[in-house]
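Can anyone check this?
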Amino acid sequence: MIHSRLGLADADSDAQLLHRVIEILSAGLDLDGVVQRVADLITETTSTDVCFVHLLDEPRGLLQLRGATPPFDQFARRIELPVGDGVSGWVAAHCEPAVITDNKRADPRYLYIPELRGEDFTSMASVPIITRPGDLVGVLNVHTRDRREFTKADVELLSTVAGLLAGAIENASPPSKLAAREEAAAQQRLRTAAALVNEG
């Protein structure tokens, strides 16, 4: 089992965290309730100080803050940034994690957002929230006031949590979006079948 260095209490902590995330996802909460509870749980169990969950508004090409630990929860649905902007936007655009240990302002990806008080936090880790089919649905960030060396194991744990969260986000997608995906898949199957017939 991977031992996380996020300050977790014992060797079983990773499994306990994932189990508690699954409990939240199974509790029948609406999407905002889910992302808020998961953000709170992550900071509670990983010795990080803040967690932000940004969800992708695909038609507008924006990431919208939807879950955050207090006092930043007051900005849920009020802060948006274009995909590609800031660390979160870079993670969304590249579908790759990003870690900044210190001196965030020197990182060309960093974008200062006054409401989120980036100057109060030294280190951060950011992971994409990706569904099993490989669709990006958001970005999950954690920040610490003290300098933190986020390890590969830390990033893997956060990515696993993000993967669990992705399923809940996908299930909460508007029916029209799901229908569009199903329609696209059906059209692809028809094209494949037609190509096979033509080859035969």
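Reply from J.R.: I decoded it. The chain has a mean pLDDT of 86.
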